[in-house]
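Shipment paperwork, digital attachment
Item: protein structure file
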Amino acid sequence: MASAPQALAAPLTEEQRAELAGLVQDYSPRMNEIATRMWANPELGYLEEETSGLLIAELEEAGFEVERNVGGIPTAFIARSGSKSGPVIAILAEMDALPGMSQAAVPHEEAAEGVESGHACGHHLFGAGSVAAAIAVSKWLKENGVEGQVRLYGTPAEEGGSGKVYMVRGGLFDDVDVTLHWHPSSTNRAGQGRSLANVSAKIRFEGESAHAAMYPERGRSALDGVEAMHHMINMMREHVPQETRIHYVITNGGAAPNVVPNSAESYLYVRHPDPAVVADVFERIQKAAEGAALGTGTEFSVERVGGVYSVLPNDVLGKLMDRNLRAAAPIAWDAEETDFATKLQTTLRKKPALSSVADVQDYSFGGQGYYSTDVGDVSWVSPTVGLGTATWVPGTATHSWQAVAAGGMSIGHKGTRLAAETLATAAAELFQSPDVIEAAKVEFENARGEEFSYSALIGDREPPLDYRLSN
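Attachment content:
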């Protein structure tokens, strides 16, 4: 394997950094308006029609050329600005909400009137902040005559829909030099770690109905098939690699005890840090399903709902992102925001100091996170780096009503400004640091391995554009 060349970074001058921060700050009022509109009208995965249109309109107004309906996804898009020569730096923009997370922008639990979903993962901030960064970088490139292209990837359905996977599988990142992303959080951090790869699937069994008391011999229970498969899966747990996670629910087990169920369904996930292990364990589960069907006289089918790679971290890029996060203007709350946070924090199990929103956590590399994201697939085809900023009150859990509440007011907006400024300065630094990009690519290739060839864990299925409608 090649050794990484020394990364002779070209940090931004104070003048350049101030220029980019100013561009982000100038756009921040509009960024906050966009985030608020997305928050007030949360749209679920693959259904983000108004949200996607809003982000596209902003980018076109700023001079970007937008390609719509990419990867076979109506709400996915790519916006491009800059020259055809020089590096290509991508910025990801998520946008989908979560079902059943309605919450008003108040520091106590209270559903928003007339709204069922909610941005409990902060993707409204993610999308608006990434657009702000891309517009700032676009202006900076033009005003300073810097060669290169900045791209904003509108990426739908991160929450269980594996939206980015279809974009990666379609080759949409093949010519990208570096990909940047961020995520709302309760802390500020640019450490780089690994996530869990996963495959999610619905395994369905079909049998024969019969009266369970009068004619049980005429029935073939589809629920028996599900339960037999689950029993074999639970025995399998002793014989899978460490860090493997298998979890399931029975989404259809029949309607009445006195009727032999003729259909049943299990919805399950397999997770592990290594995508290859996930693929192997899932293949074993399919064999268990086959055995369960044979033993119960039923038939089975498998629908892969989603599948993502683990995030492949990059230390070269992580240190660059950390440097730019520390150089950005810190978050500062006013009295009203502090009062909101103080009241909301009484509802949290953990209560870190509110002053920590101005701090940046120590940089770390290579830690294992126990979550899954479709950013993982992007990171195996393009050197990728991310960060998190404090858009929530310290101690807030992801996917909670407290996250929705803070994301709907200025606490969320101030954390988003920090993310946008960091992304913009990191991208600008990369545009004038070809040696850093090269070092990141060498590390990337070494981490993937010489024999690596990308193959999506979702297989060849089409995007499940109705997955939120059918659940």
